[in-house]
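Here's what a typical entry looks like (Small heat shock protein IbpA):
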Amino acid sequence: MRTSIDLTPYRRSTVGFDRLFDLLDNGAGHDVAGDYPPYDLVQLSEGNYRIDVALAGYKREDVEIVAQQNLLTVKGERGQENEPGEILHRGIPMRSFERRFQLADFVEVEAAKFENGLLSITLKRVLPEAMKPRKIEISSGEAMPSGLSAKGAPEPEAV
């Protein structure tokens, strides 16, 4: 009997693994990721992504972004602020957080912007030249590079 498993939590915290998730749509179990802070993962175009993290009440100085190998970590620490008057209800969380995003190979952080309580991190998939497809010219059997026969084996040296 085959059980269907929801991979949505994995999809939410990974960038650039779209094909992998299409292949593993009915894969093995998963951990339930924490839900703070909330974020959106947006694919802008092929190979271009943006992560928007909602950080109401945080300042730019309270947030740190670290990219190391295939892991992007967003940390935040908000200190206690002395509000004038008595707070009757606190609905905006004032806690520290650490959110990690697993990035696919060759996905790099391009830029980060913090505006109006929203942190936007722009990501781009950059393939090295060696990984990009290249067109190979086909020549006739007579035009092989020197030292190779038409079958690709080295030619015997004349004595």
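The first strand starts at residue 14 and ends at 15.

More examples are in the samples folder.
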